[in-house]
Amino acid sequence: MIDFSIDKEVLKKAVERAKENNIIIPTFEQMRDPTLIPDKIKQKLKNIGLWDVNSYNLFRITWKNEPIAKGGLYGNVNYFELPSELTGVKARIVALVGKWFPTGSHKVGSTFGCLVPRLVTGQFDPTTQKAVWPSTGNYCRGGAYDAQLLGCESIAILPEGMSRERFEWLSKVAGEVIGTPGSESNVKEIFDKCNELKSTHNNVVIFNQFDEMGNRLWHYVVTGPAMEEVLQKIMGEKDRLAGTVLTSGSSGTLGSGEYLKSIYPNSKLAVSEALQCPTLLYNGFGAHRIEGIGDKHVPWIHNVKNTDMVMAIDDNDAMNLIRLFNEPEGKEYLRKQGVPSSVVDNLSLLGISSIANVLSAIKFAKYYELTDKDVVMTVFTDSMELYRSRLKELQEQKGRYSEQQAAIDFNRHLMGVKTDFIQELSYYDKKRIHNLKYYTWIEQQGKELDELNEQWYNDEEYWGNAFEIADKIDQLIIEFNKKTGLLD
């Protein structure tokens, strides 16, 4: 879990580095409620771009950013509701929008939840140590960005087969970028590189999203309440939250679904993965193209006992839909099917894993025969802004997109979504998935068997008290800011 031991000497160095770089750190509470952010900082943000490498952008790690590229402040939670003309189901599918974070993805929040607790306790020395961010894409981008804003050096590690946009952006922000063999499913190769760095360097700290509890914590106490705000806004008296449906990357975002289950106890938490690599569903393996999710293992921070369903999404569906949603011929076809132009014009808000989340929500709605009184919540992790090269590759491989192909994609890959490759989890189904952690985390990564059993047999205590932990971190952040004197 999160360690609160204080190293006073290192903490002094971190405070001095913050003074030198004009770094003020936001609290979790301010991320949930930006009205608490000091006016001094809001005035600064009026002249800063959303993706600018500027320490004040730490205060834009929130779901409530004004959706503009520069100078925006705050408003309501950014969300998007997909109409039945697009989804083919009666249930209301609603998603939080990740594009309007710095870096264009909510992973910048996950990395904050991992790095900042160690910074404000003196467990990470920004003057001598390097923050290592192993990832399949957005997490290492968020980590390198946060590290830069917080005055730290960073190393980004990601598979060499990930989108060109990721590497181009990282080359400008990260201190070092390492490409490992393979692509989306090759997570062990990332872990191996981390172990190599630890054995050859004495100044690296690994922030592994798959086992860092700060990742799950941030989503539980920030993303979950943001979802709750949206639900309170859109649901009528007779409506109900049927469930939260999310792809399993590092499993951090699943914390938001756990939060909603604590507020709406009759709702479910469903987790999806690529059919081409069905680890949770079939103990399977393989490679796939849904960038943004990692496979062949069960993340250490996945609270499997609180998961109700697993399912698999064919990556062919997701890849065909990025053309339908973004090519001019595809957009025009959607309008002819009655999809409102206001929706069609904003489909670029969905990146590849976001489309997989929507397909998962559709499967969920069809499986449970949900009605127009049911709401399904999900997340648009990132947008097509990070995948234009993939769209270009498809154009080169398959040629010009046509209305005929749009009709095929719409009916086969969207309206044709089936309820196959789904499993509702019994107690022992959940335990089967949980036990898979043993091979990755105990045998390969050296974690303790006692803690693995603690996750299962003492789950309420192990996974609980998220807000209490976040409040404790907030107090440390407030004390840190006081020591810098930058808010005076």
UniProtKB/TrEMBL annotation:
Keyword Zinc included in the entry's annotation: no
Pfam family, one: PALP
Gene Ontology biological-process entries: alpha-amino acid metabolic process
Cofactors that this protein relies on: pyridoxal 5'-phosphate
Annotated Gene3D superfamilies: 3.40.50.1100
The keyword Repeat appears for this protein: no
Residues spanning the membrane: none
Domain Tryptophan synthase beta chain-like PALP: 102-330
InterPro entries, sorted: Cys_Synth/Cystath_Beta-Synth, TrpB-like_PALP, TrpB-like_PALP_sf
Origin superkingdom: Bacteria
Keyword annotations: Pyridoxal phosphate
Protein name (Swiss-Prot/TrEMBL): Cysteine synthase
Organism, scientific name: Petrotoga sibirica
